[in-house]
Amino acid sequence: MPVIDITKDLSALFRQQVQVTPDAVALEDDTATYTYVELDRKVEALSNLLRKHKVGRDSLVGVLLPRSANYVIACLAALRAGGAFLVLELAYPPELLADVIDDAQPAVVVTYRAEVGKIKEGIPLITLDEEQTDTNGDVKDLPPVPADDDLDRLAFVSYSSGTTGKPKGIANPHRAPVLSYDLRFGIRDLQPGDRVACNVFFIWEILRPLLRGATVVAVPDEASYDPPALVDLLASKNITETLMTPTLLAAVLSRHPKIGVRLPKLRTLWLNGEVVTTDLGRRAIKALPNTTLLNCYSACETHEIACGDIGKMLDDEANYCPVGPPLDPEHTYILDESGQKVEGGESGELFVGGSLLARGYINRPETTAKAFTPDPFDSAPGSRMYRTGDQARILPSGLLEITGRVGAMIKLRGYSVVPGKVEHAIVQHLAVRHCAVTAHGEALERQLVAYIVRDKESSSDRPELEVNELGHSPAARRTLSPYLAHYMIPALWVEVEELPTNAVSGKVDLKRLPPPPSPNAVNGNGALNGHKGDHDSIDIEAIAEIWAASLKISRSTITPEHSFFDLGGHSLTLADLSARFSRVLGVKVPLARLVDPATLNGHLETVRSVRDGHAAAVQAHLPDVLRKDSSLEDSIRPTNATICAASKANTILLTGVTGFLGAFLLNDLLESTSAKILCLVRFSDPSEADLPEGIARMRRHLLDLGLWRDSIMERVEILPGNLSRPRLGLSPDAFEELTGRVQVIFHAAASVNLVYPYAALRDANVGGTREILRLACRAGATVQYISTNGVLPPSREGWSEDSMLDVDDVPEKLADGYGQSKWVAEKLVREAGLRGLPVKIHRAGTISGHSTTGAGNAWDLLNAIIVESINLGYAPDVEGWRAEMTPVDFVSKAIIHLSNQTSTTQFVFHLGDPDPVQTRSVFKDLEVLGYPTKPLPWDDWVGRWQENRGTLKGGDGAFTIDILRSGMPSVEFLRGIVVLNNAATRPLRAVVERPKVDSVLLETYARHWFARGWLPHPPSRQHALGGTAQPIRRGPLSGRVAVITGASSGIGAAVAAALAREGLHLALGARRKDALEAVKSRLVVREGKVIVQQTDVTDRKQVERLIQAANDELGPVDILVSCAGVMYYTMMANAHIEDWDRTVDVNCKGLLHCLSSVVPSMISRGSGHIVAISSDAGRKVFPGLGVYSASKFFVEATLQSLRLETAGTGLRVTSVQPGNTATELLGMSTDAEAIKKYGEPTGAQILDPEDVANSIVYALRQPQHVAVNEVLIEPREEPI
User: Fold this and answer.
1) pLDDT tens-digit readout, 349-360
2) Catalytic amino acids?
3) Which neighbouring-strand residues pair with 906?
């Protein structure tokens, strides 16, 4: 039988109680006390004011106040006015508060003057600490209050904490709290004289006592999570009931183990928000013998689900206390993955139906539909159930037990760790009162960290926890090893006075826990227990034996002069070497310390120093080191340096030739310049004697990538060197000679590793760049520096070219040592540029394989994941994971193209993909190629991979297994892509087109992966089910003949690609034959034929030869697309006559030559289509482009005349008028004044050539009776 009238809303129930206990104390805080009748008057006055702000049914009243009596008054007033209160937490950051208000759109916000500045202008406000006028005026004209039995209208909206994504506004109707309070009154009723302290879950607790005549005591924010202050308040206010989170209770018991003595009147303590460990339950019962402890399980979306008396539910054999019997067992379901009910005692996901559900999430219908699904077990119309996301089971006793959170496990190197299980073992077996276990670091550095609060009154049966200065506890490992698997024992231990709690949720706030000791200090300072000995116990012979075992070579082949890397070592074998050192010598050596020096003697000293506990000062003082390292010595200054285009250089120095990008840079430099190329090849201790090995090493690398040809050595010279050494490892004489030879330096070498800390990469990446700049200043050479998107933190919006972190932000925002070292190096390059050295910085993204050959970087992590997914038959399904795959040939050619531009206006260029594709689309394209995969959540995919692939033998044919086995990335790593906006770069490199990441590119890559032995079969474009080749669908343009001028780049090349896909036969004309051939090689030709003809449109004879070739080899010309054109920014007063002449010759005469060659034959056949690229400058004159505009006005006049004169002949004439487009036209100008004044980018996203090409295809595809005469296509933000 209900305890309260469950047919009435909250406001009506409160009014009923006012009539019953008018003079009882209803509400108090530290400043005021109100009886029920006094509280009723305050509520009535404020509700009238709210109604004048049009608050009515389902209207929201924002409450931005501290926990206080006024907070309660505001909530009751909102309900009485017929609206609902919106919880606005003072703890919200400004951005979150603004987002919540924007999302919820409250009719008015109730607040204090001090908080007004947090609320954006335009939101109506009521400030309670200012005098309110006319609160009891005439209300006859206001709309009526909704009926008090309308329990489906909104009561309140609270936002989730946002720990799982963007916060959601949870909309609860009156029915939910009314039924919830009735259920709780059935468990533990209240009466006049009871005093309920409301702190944690404030809004969920403040109304319940007011429906039974009890007193609400508002606990101020500053006392809610301060155990001493909270206990003082509970004692002084004679509290009889309150609610805490288990974390808060544990903190209170740590400070007050005999809390019952302080709180003799506390009759009821509700626990909610987290699981209650058996240990905490036992301690609480002992500390509060006269208090009923109720474990309550609820969710914001469902109110109470289960509740029980902890004293009656404890099981000494269990880790956690059950949450009690379900309050509505008929609508409490434990379901398996297929949505079926599990058998009794089995674990599954908890779903809850019934009448206590929230409406859903405001303004988020899709999220609501996903969380609140139809209830298949309830036949009532419209019944729903809520997916809690918790794992649970029903015990034989009928009690509900929460066993964990779905997806809440910590993933550690492929293992799944349940933090709660580890925490329970720590508290049970060590002298620890309370703890929190989390993971810290990424990839190979990811470790479990235990944050512990010591139990200072523990009995002798639990040993004291011993933690050394580095955060290690060998004793704890020994104690826990019988109870936990090795991977579940924390590697690091951090002692805290108490665990911090979230100001909103009251749960442990993991984000506020202090950082553990740095990975470098942890891994590099301490020797393992029992293995420390004198220096003679570890000698060079021991090191050599371990080398031989790791490298799988004979000990006799190893000499003190060898480097570990010279003998075939790499990062994977280095990880194996470190493990062997740990196993054999008992010394855990971090990989970073083994990188350099990587000689026998170097490793001997490293092992000894680690064993003896020498600290790494660099990592310990990283911010100061970064600041110092990013300062360039005053002596590094150019004396007489002018920018030199790579194409004009006689001698070029290239570093990184044995790297992936460096090899392609060498290939493209050989093809595009006539310079001698000096290649610095790394040796540990370089000398001239290393020259033959340097050549052999480069040759092996180029052969693997398909780039080697014997003629290379006619123009290449090898320089054995080392970036980490002074003068690049060269002798003083050799370095001095180099300063007299080099005009351009391409610095592409770097030590790349996302695991190593800054200290391990500092010498090569920072010191090496410093030496390059020293050389360049001495030589007066231009520096082309290859940077990375890793100098910026993850961002989905895209960083602009001028973006650069402040040095103070680097340690926090750039998590890996590689990004930090490249940031410092780039900072040095920038400083050299400010001093007058010609420099250009090229920021690459994730570089993928060659777009034509597929040759790729064998160490690429994304490749490894894709290949392993194909072999596994399952692909990771990660929301927000995008695949940046920028082909290496594009990056290399773009760098060289930009290096030939001598303008110094812009010196930072972005070459990453500004809009990376979703990885899900990559796997869809691969399915078309015959590689079907099923999607799996990341953690499930990792587990399946570990089980099916992770234990297989690696090697060349299964190298991708080795890559993933060396370190599986986290979901955060996959999502944390750095996007580079290329708005300023794109116009300057437009001649080099970026290949699209589509099925064509992926087919190329898959063919290469198959050739390497990584895939079971080559790609094939077949139906996934039928296995038959996909038929070519013939479109309206298939088989027609088109001539395209200006087809070597920009719009012309894009039109060629688009029409090839449509199935046309194409004749491509342009001045540059090699560029035409390159365009042709990239075309995806469905059924047509493509010919190329070198053509200068200013020469009528050459145009006629192009048309004749088309007629002879392809057939009569149906379509002419005239794309050839030039554009020069020139000031009329500067009289750039040559530019003007060229503009008239190409744009005007070129068009006439094309028309004269095709129009007569088209008219005679009664069909044809002329398309000419005009410009929006042909409709409106732009300053700085006077002559260009005139030429385009000429084009418009010519086409209009042609259109009018040939009406009725079957000829169609289309003028395409693009606005600002990313083509090479934007880089032609030489009039610096005009460029500066009129040619600077606005920052708007401009058109791609493909955008223009698509509009042309649209015009061409129209039926014969339809003429698209003009197409004006512009960037959205740049209309004329």
Assistant:
1) 999 999 999 999
2) 1188
3) none
